[in-house]
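Assess this:
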Amino acid sequence: MTSALAQFTRLIDEGFNAGNLAVLDELVSPEFVEHQFESPGHPARTTGPAGVARIITELRRGADDFHLAIEDVSVTGDTVWARLRGTGTDTGGQLGQPPTRRPFQITVIDIARFEGDQMVEHWGVPDRLALLLQLGLFNGPHRDSNRATAAP
């Protein structure tokens, strides 16, 4: 049996970074469940290797130079806790928006649980707000100039 960290690292390197979808049948359980909210068009849980393949395809379609780098990691039993840096250039559009051609880098927190040599569950928190800000798709709250600033 291979360690959970070795399998997680392989999934990031070969699956997400190289776009090798064939490796998913080996690394992802057919019973795999994704707990991360994906996007407004895909709020349901993703299951099995095909679900992970769809996520990788979407990410790489949005940024053809998409890359994840593992920056910090901790392993507790069969669970990997990781902080990653996601980078790329918005060449295909992000979060349903047209492409901006701007580069981005965001923090991603991943928790992946393994049984044997396969990932069976994943929870993830990508910093989508940072992505929107860097791409110029969200400028933050706007102040109403007519609103009083002092309390009565």
